């Protein structure tokens, strides 16, 4: 081998060795190092619930089950789920819905209509009993817990300054006194946040931090509250601090008692923690459970916070959280940690998380869509939900009316 080629080979071997040492070293320190987690784990993953420590969220009897469709109902709606049309590279093509979902990294896809599970299928190695992680759909649960805490008198109102509950923020910057809980819920606080997809971005710092309580108060105020929408993961962390303090216990316990048990979830859930040492819930992303149980949370909001006669979440809070309105918030399409579809024919809203996790609600058609996936190559799930909703409505319209 000639000397230049040998030199290049040695250099590559040295670089590979250094990389291997860094990678192995990172894996040794993932329990307490944000940097190590970012290097070892890289991008977020649907199985991250296995990496982070967690706090169990217990379920309780009686269990709630959606109705299973009869053979006649399955046949009636079969055509609605037969095919899907998609566009790739400017070319439009049709394929079977099942094939489309599997090819687009879906692991769970559910459609509930009039409390009947019209469609429930799992792909890519997942099944009914599989655990999925919520990513940012967890924010919608946090919002519900804030509404419940207000109804119980633990929190005054959304107009309360966050410093009423987290006074140490004043020591960092007196401008925090002008940031209200509403500003946090609507992503309009003026707190600095930059999501750049690197280990040094605020998105990585909040996702991988082993001390989220400290992280929650680490970012400076750089803008005026209520003026600009900026999706910011520090907001759910700050609201988690508020909930932790007003309830006197872990936020996962509050979720368990106010939502998980009352909804009759069929399996225990969990809430991922920043670390064993600090034990703070990953408020921005970390609720884990079965897809069917996430659908029950959708049903709660479909029915204005009422669960079989019990008003678990105030109806007014559901309305405020999901309305298409910009009179009190910077943008109409995002309210209290819920997204609203401005292009829909009705009042359609959804919880959304990284990699295409969705809980999509169509109240006037009594429909819930749930999609969880490993990744999101499609990126237009709201469009697909609307197409399927129209097809289901067309089937309903074709049925003979009852007299």
List keywords for this structure.
2 domains, alpha+beta, Beta-lactamase, 403 residues, six-stranded antiparallel sheet, four-stranded antiparallel sheet
Description:
This protein is of the alpha+beta class and 403 residues long. The protein folds into two domains: 3-46; 49-67 and 98-398, 3-Layer(aba) Sandwich (Beta-lactamase). Helix content is 36%, strand content 16%. The chain is built from 14 helices and 14 strands. A six-stranded antiparallel β-sheet has the order 5-4-14-13-12-11, sandwiched between helices. A four-stranded antiparallel β-sheet has the order 1-7-8-6. A hairpin with an 8-residue loop joins strand 11 and strand 12. Helix 1 packs across helix 2 and helix 5 runs parallel beside helix 10 (234-247). The chain is globular. The termini are far apart.
